[in-house]
Write a structure and sequence with these properties.
With 433 residues, this protein is of the alpha/beta class. Among the domains are: 10-98, Arc Repressor Mutant, subunit A (Orthogonal Bundle); 196-201 and 253-430, Chitobiase, domain 2, CATH 3.30.379. It contains eleven helices and twelve strands. The chain has helices at residues 10-24, 33-41, 54-71, 141-172, 179-185, 202-211, 217-221, 236-250, 257-267, 376-386, 389-399; strands spanning 79-82, 91-94, 196-199, 277-280, 294-297, 315-318, 326-330, 340-343, 351-360, 367-373, 407-414, 422-430. The strands form three sheets. The chain has a seven-stranded mixed β-sheet with strand order 4-3-5-10-9-11-12, with helices on one face. Strand 1 (79-82) and strand 2 (91-94) form a beta hairpin. Helix 1 crosses helix 3, helix 6 runs antiparallel to helix 8 (236-250) and helix 9 packs parallel to helix 10 (376-386). The longest helix is centred in the middle third of the chain and has 32 residues, at 141-172. The radius of gyration is 34 Å and the shape is elongated. This is Adenylate cyclase. It comes from Granulicella sibirica.
């Protein structure tokens, strides 16, 4: 990788490492252009290969660089490879050896004094020393076999070392520990910019409970929520007390245990400097959404930034502040889906729901993930679902697409005191970008 043809091209090195690992370590026989575009060049899951030829252009250049390497710096390599046209999988070959001429039983050179020979008119054929021959002999078969065995052994050792390094990486980066985890979280990790996790501001949700009305992102950004008033008429003393309560609430930037657990589960997927960046909703700068990979934890009720995606959501939370039930409504329900699902804000309720939304960012330069539960525990269940290999495999089978397309899914979360939260998918949508 540090040879002259590749030293200054990180992109071609990444290309070669990816196709090599997929072929040698994972046994992939047929690598697709779109798959490489996503993994190496950061393209979205729905990018059009007929309009974007970045993979084909770089594959052409990669083939040239490989040929240059083996013709020059790698001319002594016994094992070569190439990426044939029409394919993206490397093909390995043992380099053919030039036959080495060995004169059998060649006598030592002795300088002789040649006497002049009288011309006789007839051609004199020189005689050869006994045991010598003009016929060349190549390596004996036993030596050829030994060379092949040696090359095979070196190749096996190389593959073993690469595989061991891969295992070490998967231990360090848990998102690489399974195919489904790798397929989904590869949309966020291993990119130029680490994903940002935007944590909910539960004081914003608490203020809405006090006011008994819904507040918007606009209220959040211009701080008008700090002086908002309840729609119900209040006495002077009650109104004054409410303002004091809100002042205390808004003076603190608070979060929930469930949200922090989700953030911890995600940060554990990738450790090191290229891991994740945590930011509170109150400190988040909205313009960053346009060019970064972002994960929002919490619904729009406690994480108002989620409101930016409201017109693209298939599921909508309707919080009740009166006697009626709170519901999640579905756009265009199909099959066994219900038009709406009721939920209770009571922490003792046996059933809750969590919405998982995977979308491109507004400029299609990165990805956005929303994990929004009807309460803190439901959000935590959504985080558990997305960091579980088995759960992601179930979702992938339901969506029937590889790699993961953009999607929306609704989980029903069942909870019994003292037992683990159980999640089932009650609705899913593939998002056409």
């Amino acid at each position: 990788m540090e040879s002259t043809p590749f030293r200054r091209s990180q992109r071609l090195r990444d290309f070669l490492v990816y196709v090599g690992n997929e072929t040698v370590l994972h046994g992939v026989q047929d690598l697709h252009e779109q798959q490489i575009g996503m993994a190496v060049f950061g393209r979205s899951a729905s990018y059009d290969t007929s309009q974007d030829n970045i993979v084909r252009v770089n594959a052409m250049e990669l083939r040239k660089r490989i040929e240059i390497y083996f013709a020059n710096e790698g001319s002594g390599e016994p094992l070569t490879f190439e990426i044939p046209r029409g394919s993206y999988s490397p093909v390995f070959r043992v380099r053919p050896q030039e036959p080495i001429v060995i004169l059998a039983n060649e006598p030592p050179f002795v300088e002789e004094h040649l006497e002049p020979v009288a011309a006789t008119g007839s051609e004199v054929t020189p005689s050869l020393p006994p045991g010598s021959s003009h016929l060349p002999q190549v390596f004996p078969k036993s030596l050829q076999i030994a060379l092949i065995v040696m090359i095979a052994g070196l190749t096996a050792a190389l593959i073993f070392e690469v595989h061991r390094d891969q295992q070490a990486q998967s231990t360090l980066h848990k998102w690489q520990s399974g195919p489904a985890l790798r397929a989904f979280w590869g949309n966020f990790f291993g990119r130029k910019l680490p994903p940002e996790i935007v944590l909910a501001d539960t004081s914003f949700g608490l203020a809405q409970d006090v006011l008994q009305k819904q507040l918007s992102l606009a209220n959040y950004l211009d701080y008008s929520y700090r002086t908002a008033q309840s729609p119900q008429p209040l006495s002077s003393d009650a109104s004054q007390q409410q303002r004091k309560d809100l002042a205390v609430i808004f003076s603190r930037s608070t979060g929930s245990i469930g949200d922090f657990r989700v953030a911890r589960r995600i940060t554990e997927l990738q450790t090191g400097d290229d891991g994740t960046r945590l930011v509170a909703a109150r400190e988040y700068a909205g313009h960053r959404l346009r060019w970064s990979n972002t994960i929002f934890v919490g619904s729009s009720r406690s994480n108002p930034w989620v409101e930016l995606f409201e017109d693209r959501l298939a599921y909508h939370f309707k919080q009740s502040y009166g006697s009626g039930p709170s519901v999640i409504t579905l756009d265009n329900p199909t099959g066994s889906e219900q038009p709406q699902y009721e939920f209770s804000a009571d922490s003792g309720a046996k059933t809750a729901y969590c919405m998982i939304v995977f979308l491109p960012n507004p400029t299609n330069t990165g990805n956005t993930l929303i994990i929004a539960g009807t309460d803190s525990q439901a959000t935590e269940a959504g985080g558990d679902f997305l960091t579980s290999e088995d759960s992601l495999e179930r979702l992938q089978a339901l969506l029937r697409q590889k790699p993961f397309p953009y999607f929306q899914a609704l989980l029903r979360v069942s909870r019994v005191t003292g037992t683990q939260l159980e999640s089932e998918i009650v609705s899913s949508r593939i998002v056409r970008n």
